[in-house]
Amino acid sequence: MPKVKALPAKLRRDLYRSMLRLRLCEERLVELYPEQEMRCPVHFSIGQEATPVGVSAALRPDDYAMSGHRSHGHYLAKGGDMNRMFAEFYGKKTGCASGMGGSMHLIDREAGFLGATPIVASTIPIGVGTAFGSKMRGDKKVTAIYFGDGATEEGAFHEAVNFAVLKKLPVLFVCENNLYSVYSPLSVRQPAGRVIADHVRAYGIESLQGDGNDPEEVYRMSMTAATKARRGGGPTFLEFATYRWLEHCGASYDNDLGYRSKAEFERWKKKCPLLRSRKRLLKDKIVTADNLKNIEADIRAEVEVAVNFAQASPFPDKSVLFKNIYAGSGDG
Ligand SMILES: Cc1ncc(C[n+]2csc(CCOP(=O)(O)OP(=O)(O)O)c2C)c(N)n1
Ligand SMILES: [Mg+2]
Predict the structure, then answer these.
(1) Is the pLDDT of residue 329 over 80?
(2) Beta bridge partners of 238
(3) Is the minimum distance from the CB of 69 to ligand 1 under 6 angstroms?
(4) Beta strands of the chain (E only): which ranges?
(5) How confident is the model at residue 82, as a pLDDT?
(6) How many angstroms separate the CA atoms of 38 and 20, rounded?
(7) What is the average pLDDT score of the chain?
(8) Domains delineated in the chain
(9) Which atom of ligand 1 is nearest to the CA of 69?
């Protein structure tokens, strides 16, 4: 591989910090979830932090992003409010979806995070619509749409890619390929030997694969794609290889179920995006051990503020229960 120029030190440090923020948020969530005060299903992305962080660093604050059921990292990395995220987990009025949505319905319009819904692939055409709007307005904004390998098996994905290519829309299709859809590995879902990125290329879209556990690689690829999109060059499909550590849904490990091997799990744990980044930053003298400690302490304090905010917030009033269920039934 040709040698690439190193990224600026500050950016490399920021990428690490941002990943640690996602990790510590979710680790705190793992501790608190069994208390049963948060009653929404939760899909963790521990192990998958590098992709949202690398993509978001390539986006501008007013660019857009959308996601699905596993969206904490996508929301936070795009600038979503941490206090309001925890409040949403607790079903509180101060939550980012007013406590009505839970973990799978995060939204922060001010941060450009236009929403997440758990119907697999459902936000892909919506994100393409957003990008279509940007193109019509000429506002130079880019939309990043996150989804898993499983979502590429949905019809909505294929229609959306075709339309984005046809209209040359400013979209980053970001596929986090973690090898599984719930307990089903790719081998029982797609023909042997298929590479998702190759398959999708047939639509006439630039389609690339990258290391989804390396925030710097994700950043470089996303930056190239975002710059192209902003200049009118159309969409890019980015397939990032990564791995979820915890069970599909919930705060436990589920390796005892036998749907994936211990050896595979251990192999991916060694590729922990934080571990690798930390090693590289120390080796390149971008940070010291003391810097790392301070970064961690700062983030832990921020997370505690968010948890306290959420716990101290009131529940929504019962009168809102039937609002926002059908168009026109709520406040907007
Ligand atoms: C249309 C639809 N079908 C099935 C489900 C149930 N379901 C929820 S998450 C999930 C797995 C999706 O896998 P993938 O897209 O690879 O995302 P990952 O969970 O691996 O991040 C499934 C099948 C759903 N929510 N929506
Ligand atoms: Mg998957």
Answers:
(1) no
(2) 174, 208
(3) yes
(4) 64-67, 113-116, 143-148, 171-177, 180-181, 184-185, 206-211, 236-241
(5) 98
(6) 23
(7) 97
(8) 9-244+285-314 (3.40.50.970)
(9) 9
